[in-house]
Write a structure and sequence with these properties.
Helix content: 40-55%
Order of helices and strands: HHHHHHHHEHEHHHEHEHEHEEEE
CATH class of the largest domain: Alpha Beta
Largest sheet: 9 strands, mixed
Number of domains: 2
Strand content: 5-15%
Shape: globular
Length: 409
């Protein structure tokens, strides 16, 4: 019930930390139906006096409010999620009820209006905010914890499997948009899957979106890479035709069933993926990493290709920042820009990304890939953009024995 939900939330917001945690999770006064004024009172009091009003003050001002005695601090995320879900439900009901008045007159226009307004609900509710001055001491704790983790050899963000990032124990950070660029067939999908497997193997949750490859193809590649990371060898080409040590393969699969932290999707109910559908998947599965194999395949309302990429990139960047997750995508480069006059491959640059420069502007990190036609198990990469560190423009040779699940950087 909404009344109990609101009472438990406000009963738990008895100190500055708990109240800040609710705000950080996206709870606003709109989430309250019965105790909107009480939430606003606590919020105003906190920002005026840097503390939460005492119970005696609250009871004197709001005698109808009853404190819940059995609420526990670990309920903060659950209560926040439930309040936000109820708020979204109320908004959705209002939109649908309003649409009932116009659907007979203009059914197509009404459907478009409903879709647009429903898509905007998520963007409005997921606002990331912080009082940079008042909440400054939280950064002391964050920096101190990061130093301790790095001192123990633990990666602060998501481990990448790329030594250029992991050797400083930083990894991908929540809010990052990572782009892997290269021409068709260079191995972008394998690198995306490899980095995702490394993050998963480090204990993180992955949502892998594959608009082109089927789930079956992705999962056989997953078996090859994860097999290598956990001490097995399942050659991908042989795995596809059943030439495998079935005893070892079954053991690998049985080990995999102990977790439920990797979600692969290859279809959006028969339609192309778009940013709202990805947001829906993120809200359903709560991943730490979203891996999208082909940002150019997302659908938007725009007809121009550069506008489509700009809308998709902006949407995914906002998703990363508001949900505090990492999003990693692959993108094609212009074919004419990645070959020399002799036809030899040339390392792609940021300006070579297909369909505009939106990805180059929004991405926190860009990994550029090139192959050597004389060395099938070798790739070269550069890091032309790295927001929190220096770019690496001299190509680095990497081992790319993907049939064995080995990418060594």
């Amino acid at each position: 019930m909404q009344k109990e939900l609101e009472e438990r939330t406000l009963s738990l917001a008895r100190n500055s930390k708990s109240f800040n945690d609710f705000i950080k999770h996206g709870v606003t006064s709109e989430c309250f139906v019965l105790y909107t004024e009480l939430f606003d009172f606590i919020s105003k009091y906190y920002h005026n006096y840097n503390s939460i009003p005492a119970e005696t003050i609250i009871k004197a001002s709001f005698p109808e409010f009853t404190y819940s005695q059995d609420v526990k601090p670990e309920e903060i995320k659950y209560l926040s999620d439930e309040l936000i879900k109820n708020t979204i439900k109320r908004r959705a009901i209002r939109i649908i009820n309003d649409a009932a008045e116009t659907v007979d007159i203009d059914p197509l226009g009404t459907v478009d209006m409903v879709i647009s307004k429903l898509s905007n609900i998520r963007r409005k509710i997921a606002v990331s905010r912080s009082f940079t001055d008042k909440d400054a001491l939280r950064r002391y704790q964050l920096v101190h914890e990061n130093r301790e983790r790095i001192g123990r050899g633990v990666t602060v963000g998501l481990k990448t499997g790329i030594s250029l990032f992991d050797d400083k124990f930083i990894g991908w950070q929540p809010g990052d948009l990572i782009a892997v660029i290269g021409r068709m067939g260079v191995g972008k999908s394998w690198l995306l899957l490899y980095c995702s497997c490394v993050a998963y193997n480090s204990g993180h949750r992955v949502l892998y979106i594959s608009p082109e490859m089927s789930i079956n193809e992705v999962e056989l590649r997953w078996d090859t890479i994860m097999g290598h990371l956990t001490g097995y060898t399942f050659l991908n080409k042989k795995l596809q035709v059943g030439e495998v040590n079935f005893k070892e393969y079954k053991k690998h699969l049985e080990d995999a069933t102990k977790r439920s932290d990797w979600i692969t999707v290859d279809s959006n109910n028969g339609r192309a993926f778009n940013v709202p559908s990805i947001i829906s998947l993120v809200d359903e599965f709560s991943p730490d990493l979203v891996a999208l194999d082909g940002i150019g395949l997302l659908e938007t309302g725009s007809k121009e290709s550069w506008q489509k990429i700009e809308e998709s990139t902006t949407g995914l960047k906002n998703l990363s920042q508001t949900r505090k997750i990492v999003t990693m995508v692959t993108s094609q480069v212009n074919r004419a820009a990645v070959a020399s006059e002799d036809g030899d491959p040339v390392m792609p640059r940021v300006e070579n990304i297909s369909m505009g420069d939106a990805i180059g502007k929004a991405a926190s990190v860009i990994i550029s890939m090139m192959q050597d036609i004389n060395k099938p198990n070798v790739r070269y990469i550069t890091i032309p953009k790295r927001r929190n560190d220096e770019a690496i423009n001299r190509p680095k040779e990497i081992r790319f024995s993907v049939d064995e699940g080995i990418i060594s950087i």
